[in-house]
Amino acid sequence: MTSSQPIDLQNSTIASASQQPLWKQEGAEPFLRIENVTKKFDDFTAVDNISLDIYKNELFCLLGGSGSGKSTLLRMLAGFESPTSGRILIDGIDMAGIQPWNRPVNMMFQSYALFPHLSVADNVAFGLKREGVSRSEVKQRVAQMLDMVQLGHLGKRKPHQLSGGQRQRVALARALIKRPKLLLLDEPLGALDKKLREETQFELINIQEELGVTFVVVTHDQEEAMTLATRIGVMNHGVIVQTDEPHDVYEYPNSRFVAEFIGSVNLFEGKVIEDEPDRVRIESPEAGATLYVNHGISCAPEQIVHVAVRPEKIKISHNRPQQQDNCIQGEIEDIAYMGSLSVFRVRLPNGKEVRVTQPNFTRSMGDRFTWNDKVFLCWDEESSVVLTA
Amino acid sequence: MSILSRAALIHDASSRMTKYDFIRRVNWGKTAVVAVPALWLAVFFFIPFLVVFKISLSEAAIAVPPYSALLEWDLEEAYLTLKLNIGNYLYLLEDAFYLDAYLSSIRIAAVSTFYTLILAFPIAYMIARAEGGKRALLLALVILPFWTSFLLRVYAWMGFLKKNGIVNEFLMATGIIDQPLVMLQTDFAVYIGIVYTYLPFMVLPLYSALEKMDMTLLEAAEDLGCRPIQSFFLITLPLAVPGIIAGCLLVFIPAVGEFVIPALLGGSDTLMIGRVLWDEFFLNRDWPMASAVAIVMLIVLVLPIMLIRNGQGKEETV
Questions:
Q1: What is the C-alpha separation between B121 and A201, in angstroms, rounded?
Q2: How far apart are CA A78 and CA B131, in angstroms?
Q3: Do B222 and A99 touch (CB under 8 A)?
Q4: Is A178 within 8 Å of B224 when comparing Cβ atoms?
Q5: Helices (H) and strands (E) in chain B, counts
Q6: Among residues A201, A230, A256, which one ends one of the domains?
Q7: How far apart are CA A305 and CA A284, in angstroms?
Q8: Are residue A224 and residue A284 in the same domain, yes or no?
Q9: What is the Cα Rg of chain B in Å?
Q10: For residue B205, how far is the Cα from the chain centroid?
């Protein structure tokens, strides 16, 4: 079922780069359609009525903690599990009853699942050989694939003779060699150390763009999701709570869960006093102040909401700033110097703790902060988000 | 160049270890730990082997012990004669009976090993895939027969297989046959006895090989286009090879020399080298001949096994 077209370098990602991405176009045909899919294991609902459209050439990340159902969803796409109810369509074809070995889908396993008794080249060739591709073509395509993942010289090695990073590449090459329409990646970078992970992230994006394969990545690592994804689906308790581009997921989380799951955030509980289209005023005893947010929300008056402010959006200063609104006072309780930035834990008079990060612009900060300093914390109206859920 | 200096050279070239490390490596504690089993093997295997080998080169005699001495002192003439009798070995080659016995033993052992493997593989596979508690129970069940005497269990099979035994009674009662089958005192009964007795020795190494296998490998194979039957032959079976080899050796080696099972279940025409050995030793009282039979059996068994082991070792280091 896999197409045997030569690799198309002029794929549509590049062509459509100037246009709107597919998921923003009205009436665009999704490549992968998940329709009301539910998966139950006995009494436990792992995936709860998920509907999701993923478009061609996307690198979609399913992000969630353990037990959020992201892996179960991925396994249903691969065909290892079948949905209790709902439909999965890949390129318009209903996958119900189609066995894993007949799906136009390949998977890269979290453990890589390399065959220990086969050499690197044989591991990569495995899928092609099952298709009955001629011996010479197998050889040529394996060589090509190994070159792409920069392992051309290691074809004769056995998996246990490779480093973690090399194994990851073999797993990727093996999953890509059949030119699947859809590649599923289960925690693709999870087993790599931090430095290698950062390099590999960009490599993965390059390969994805080069081959024009649609990727669905499962990860619990929000940083990984942010760098890799065209869009992120944040999962919790078997439900996708938010689907958006990385920037929007971070800057405009739609719920407390998403705000807290991705990055760190300060949440202030408060009551809506004034709800205008371009400005909301919120009385927050937790912040000890009235907070302003410059975007409208749809909520009942007097509703209890949360104002979310990211630590890096808060300005910290010793002197009372010009700004009047969204300013609170506190005392520095703890400082963590992290090299590129410093993290401050500031205690408000009412006991609430606020996290503030500041990039270390200079080697020695003139206005150096130290423990027990009385400071002002301010942020702009547009920097905070009101969360109703 | 002495071995030591060569070793030191290799050492310098291959690692950053210092001389100090090299000296420290001569570790007496380690030597002692290895010495105990080495001594054990020397006392209870190698020396007895030499004794048997010595007897095989002597001549049968009516004496106690019933063989001639290899060394003879003639004090008056100041002569020490060493008499090595290779006649026993020549006789083994000459008399087709012994060759037949060896070949028949190997054939019976090989056929039984094959059936044991076929029977044990699904059992081992099922146990390896069972869940924790259930797995422990199943493993215990595999080992359970060892709690009863081996001899008793073989006798029990006589009860099953004899003319008016349980199997025949059942088959007649259900009308499948109207004449009792002759099963006891046939090669068939010997196969059953060996397969039954040695099954755990096959199941356990197979289990340990299969249990180590990562189940996601099978999913990966399916994902890459294998049907389950293909992934069995391409993944499961190759990964079980170490277990298969170990299990086959554990069954084949003792089965070749098996005496009790052919004696109790086999017929008079079931020719196995274990019985020949017994007869030479206890009926003919020809210790040298019996010893020669034993030595040749050892060589016949050990050589191919060493070759297999050697091949395996090489493969692992590649």
A1: 43
A2: 25
A3: yes
A4: yes
A5: 16, 2
A6: A256
A7: 9
A8: no
A9: 26
A10: 14
Contacts of A104 in chain B (CB under 8 A): none
d(CA A135, CA A127) in angstroms, rounded, equals: 13
State what percent of residues in chain B have pLDDT above 70: 90
For residues B127 and A287, what is the distance between their CA atoms, to the nearest angstrom?
61
The alpha-carbon gap from B235 to the nearest alpha carbon of chain A, in Å, equals 7
d(CA A123, CA B262): 47
CATH of domain B95-285: 1.10.3720.10
CB contact under 8 A, B238 and A101: no
Interface test with A, best of B214, B224, B241 (most A CBs within 10 A): B224
Question: Has residue A105 been placed in a domain?
Answer: yes
Q: Tokens standing for A315?
A: 């300005």
d(CA A100, CA B255): 44
User: Can you tell me the distance from the alpha carbon of A125 to that of B68, in angstroms, rounded to the nearest whole number?
Assistant: 67
Q: Which residue has the tokens 């309780």?
A: A333
Average pLDDT score, chain B: 86
pLDDT in tens, A26-43: 778 899 999 999 999 999
ipTM of this complex prediction, to 2 decimal places? 0.82
From A224, A256, A288, give the residue that closes a domain.
A256
**Cβ neighbours around A217 below 10 Å, total:** 26
Q: How far out from the chain centre does Cα B63 lie?
A: 34
Predicted pLDDT at B21: 54
Nearest to B224 among A111, A117, A130 (CB): A130
Cβ burial B267-298 (10 Å sphere, 16+ → b, else e): eeebbbbbbbbbebbeeeebbbbbbbbbbbbe
CATH number at A370 reads 2.40.50.140
Contact A131 B235 (CB under 8 A): no
Judged by DSSP in three states, A266 sits in strand
Residue pair B209/B248 in contact by the 8 Å Cβ criterion: no
In a domain, A9, yes or no: no
Among partner residues B214, B222, B239, which is closest to A101 by beta-carbon distance?
A: B222
| Alpha-carbon Rg for chain A in angstroms | 25
Residue keyed to tokens 């994902």: B223
Q: Residue B228's closest chain A neighbor by CA?
A: A101
Contact across the interface for B221 and A115, Cβ inside 8 Å: yes
Query: Residue A29 gets which letter from DSSP?
Result: P
Which pLDDT band holds residue A154 (cuts at 50, 70, 90)? Answer: very high
In this structure, the answer to whether residues A269 and A364 fall within a common structural domain is yes
Location of structure tokens 């996708």 = A240
Nearest CA in chain A to B229: A101
Q: Domain residues for A278? A: 264-387
Q: What are phi and psi of B243, to 5 degrees?
A: -65, -40
Structure tokens that stand for A328 in this block:
């609170």
pTM over 0.90: no
Task: Tell me if A8 is assigned to some domain.
Answer: no
Instruction: Return the CATH number at A89.
Output: 3.40.50.300
Domain count, chain A: 2
Do A268 and A252 lie in one domain? The reply is: no
| Alpha-carbon separation of residue A283 from A278, A301, A361 (angstroms) | 17, 12, 34
Q: What is the dihedral of CA B200, B206, B207, B213, to 10 degrees?
A: 180
